[in-house]
Each structure stands twice: as structure tokens, then as C-alpha cells.
């Protein structure tokens, strides 16, 4: 029998039971739609996050801290008593391939802008060094002073406009009271200081991980040392002048050796890699969930095909009686499953693309991603996520749909093909 | 030397036995049947139910293999064939069943085309042949009707057209009038006789109805899996 005739014959059987075939197809379509929607969305998430990372971290910097990777998120201090000091930048600067280094002291404070009080993460930095290290440390309003006075405070755009709706809490020239409660030489002290906003940074966007951030609150490092009565700093960002992996590895080793292994050196690129790995796991997890729905659909296919096989036992007998080969019977039943898989796949892809965009649209409207947003600071706005729909994703979704249909169709099809013509013809 | 030896034999059966297992119990449906069929013969196989008629028919139609003995169809020994070769052999046999066995979702012409489709004949050619065949059986104006829209007699004529379409070496009819009223049954039999007489088509009819059997030129009586009698019917 010609393959075209096999398909035509299969199709006539599907057409006879439109409702049943339709529902089975729907099952496959839902599975495929879930796969396409979830994977295109996480694909978009990955692209956005990678972009944000590359923008806000730069790939030519290393972070030296006592607290491992957490230091990048503003956390400091590991378990040990060891602390990085301001002067340690000199040690680092003397190592080969180090271009420059900037010490950052991070403290959690309350900032009071004429009545509106916010908990913020304060960073004590050298303005000049920070400007040369990060291209995003640029004033949108006011100017970044070259030789700042102790009271010169710089804030991120989200601090000035926390709700991004024009409700301004701080302008250049406004006074701000910094309230800090902490431990100095063993005693708990609560102290405050009033500074003046001299500059508001241009909007940076992103998640605000390391480097300048929209929710940043910056004071001169010298003043921070004085105010917090400590030379302990949270991290040192090192600008390097090489992108050769081996040299970077050696450099990291040398920094660690210089501090007797008590510091950890984090490479943003490595962090990016880790983030991508997490997203990869998320991807597999989501695809797995979607895959389960597809397997359920597959069982549905198997179920209706077994019913169809029983209903058509006599037909199989008639066909075999006319000299149809078992292989052709197998082909007829498998193509029925395949058509359901293919049709479900096509509908599923269309629905999946729509749903993926819908999820992304919903995210953008929410303006934040719940827990995620919290982790990086409540001021952080959610960047737009555009679902990534690649030909590879679509074709593999389609192939997967057809494959599931064929695999689950194989058993009923084989059973049909193995029927003995005598028995099948006798079947009532 | 008698006349039979000059004509080619389409079927040759020697000492054919077939034992089925009905659950745990073996049933000897055929217990040593020998007969041969020449081209152009019109044979009726008669016998009460349980006589082994259907089993013999399954053997002749290459639907099943014997337990012992040989059956040659067009000089090919059925007992040595694999499933695919058996299927190929069936492409040269026309079947007409008591219950018509048409595919209900296909129209008359679709059903008649089916055997041609199985052997891979292109659409245009088989459509043309099927149209011609349906006109021969007198259904030229009912070609696009589904079996459910046809009367019993019309359905059986579609089945006959389907059996004839592949130009088979012989046609097996299993109680072809069993589901038809007497008048329609006789019409089908008249048509069958005409096919045999005018087109030389070899016909084997299996029936329990002596009236139908009497129209054949050779009558074989089966009883308890054995041939009771095999004689020429001078009345036909």
C-alpha cells in the first residue's frame, strides 16, 4: 500500500470520531503549549538576567570579600574574625594584572529625607575611583564631586523616586539624616549624621547586584570610616587588565594567597555562570512538569487507540483478508497516533506562544516579581522579559509531541497488526 | 485420463487436518480432507454447522495454516508460507462474506477500490477500475453511497465487486445469501452463476442451504471434518 493511501485511510478513521480525536489532540496540545510557554518564558528570563548581569557587573572586575559570593549582594563578613581593611587595597594593587581597586564599606542604615524614612544599604566608597571603575556611576542630577566633603551624599534614582511615579522624596540639595544602630568596640550605639544630596544617579535598571545600583546610597569612604569608627570594609572590587583565563586564575590565586586564604575572590563571570546554571535547572524542572502533562496526553492516546482497536477488530480482519500486510496495519494505526501528535503539536505551539507572551505581559504589569524583587531590594523595578521563541524550541516541541504520540501508539498498533485474520474476522 | 487433468488446478488439498484448541480442549475441525479444484469450476460446499465448512474455507482462503497435510493454492504450498507471503496469496483470492464486511466509513467505490489500494495501484487507475466493476454488478448509480445507505442486496453486490476487482484466481463465498431475503438471495446466486458461466470465474460457495447448493455444478458434502460425498450436480 502506498504511504499516501495509508495516511488517507488513517485520516478517514480519525474523521469518523471527531470528538474523541479532538479531545485527545487537546491533551497533546495542552502538554506542548505548557512546554513552549514555560521554556520560552524562562528563555526570556535568562536573556534578561544575563543582560542585567553584564551591564551591572562588568566582566573585567573581581570582588574580594570575606563573605564569599554573598558580598556581591551587599552582605558582608564571614564567620571568621578576619576583616578586610581599607589599606588592603594597596596589597591588591601591587599584584600583577590589577589595574586598580576600590574598597567598599557596606552598612545597613535608615535614611530620613525630611520625614520619609527608609531602610537602605549604605556604601562608603571613593567617588573618583568608583566613577572610573563603573560606567554606570554617572550623575543624572547634580554632580559627583571630585573631592567630596564629608556630607556629600549620592543616591540612586529609585531612592529619589521609590515608586517610579514622580513622587519624589529627595532632590539634589535636600538634607538627609543617616541613622545607624550598631556595635562600636563592643558597645551598642545609635548615632546619626546629616548630609546633603549632591547627586542623583542616572537610572541604571537591572537587579542592582554589585556595583552602582538604583537603590544605592553612597557616602565618601573617609567619612564612613570616621562615622562607623572602623576601618573594616565589606569588599574590594578589583579592576583587572586582562581577559586571559589562565592569568585571571593566577591572579585570583595570588590575591587569596596574599590574605592567607582568608578571603574569597568572586568573578562576576562565574556568578553569571552560576545564575545560568540555576536557570538551567529551573528550565529542566519546568520542562519536566510540562513533560508530565504530555505523558498524560500520551496515555490518553494509548487509551483511545486501544478502544479504537477493539472497535475495529473486524475491519482489521477484513483488511488482512484482502491481503494487507501486518506492517501496513501497524502503519495505519501509527499514522493515526502521529496525526493526533502533529495536530496537537501545531495547536500547542500556537497556544504556547500566546501563553508565554501573556505570562511575560502579566509580569511586566506587576512591575516586580514578588520574592525575587524583595531579595534585591523593594525598590528594584522588574525589567521587561520577552519570551524567547526559537525555531529549535518549536521544532523540538513538535518532534516531542509526535514522538510521545507514536511511542504510546506503538503498543495498540502492534496489537492491531498481530491480530490473526481468522480471529479478527470472527470478532463480533 | 479424464477431462479434469487438462485444466489447471487452482486448489489441491491432500489429507488436510486442522485441530483447534478451544480453551484446553482440542477440536478436530478437519480430519483428513482431500480435493482439488480446477479453473472455472462452480462448487458448493454443504454441511451442517460444525462440519468443518468454515475451517476448510479459511484454509482455501489462505487465512489460516493447516495442522497437517498439504494445501496448494496456484501450486504454492500454504503450510510453508510466512504471514506476509500468506497475505500476498490472499491478494489473489476474492472473499464474499455472509455479513458483507464492508468498511462502513467508506462509500461503495471506496470499498471496491480497497483491494487495489492494498496492492499499490495509483488512485486514478483504481477509481476507474472500481467504477467499471460497480457498473458490472449493476450499482453504477450508487457508487458514492455509504454501506448504511444501501440495501442488503446492494451491499452484497458491492462485496462481490470488491472480491472481483483484483481479478482473483477464485472467489470464496461464505453463506453469501445468509443475511438476505430469498428473492435477493436468488438474485445474487443468479449473478454468481453468470460470472461463472460467462467469465469463467472459479466459484466456491459454502452454505448450509441445499437450495443454494443445488445451483452449483459440483456439490461437496462435509460431515464431522470429512468429505461425505463429492459429486457432479447434473441439475445445474
Describe what is shown at a glance.
Chain A has 428 residues and is of the alpha+beta class.
The biggest sheet of chain A, with number of strands, parallel, antiparallel or mixed sense and barrel status, is: 6 strands, mixed, barrel
From the N-terminal CA to the C-terminal CA of chain A, the straight-line distance is 27 Å
Number of helices of chain A: 13
Unreliable residue runs of chain B: none
Radius of gyration of chain B: 18 Å
Describe this structure in words.
The complex is a heterodimer of chains A (428) and B (236). Chain A has 428 residues and is α+β, with helices and mostly antiparallel strands. Chain A has two domains: 3-55 and 272-426, no CATH class; 60-242, no CATH class. Chain A contains 13 helices and twelve strands. Chain A is elongated. Mean pLDDT of chain A is 83; it is low at 74-78 and 367-380. Chain B is an alpha/beta fold. Chain B has one domain (41-56, 80-232): Rossmann fold. Chain B contains seven helices and ten strands. Chain B has helices at residues 53-60, 83-90, 108-118, 123-136, 152-164, 182-199, 210-213; strands spanning 9-22, 25-38, 42-46, 68-73, 76-77, 93-96, 170-174, 203-207, 218-223, 226-232. In chain B, strand 9 and strand 10 form a beta hairpin. In chain B, helix 4 (123-136) crosses helix 5 and helix 5 (152-164) runs parallel beside helix 6 (182-199). The longest helix of chain B has 18 residues, at 182-199. The mean pLDDT of chain B is 91. Classes of the chains: A alpha+beta (428), B alpha/beta (236). The interface between A and B is medium-sized, with 26 and 27 residues.
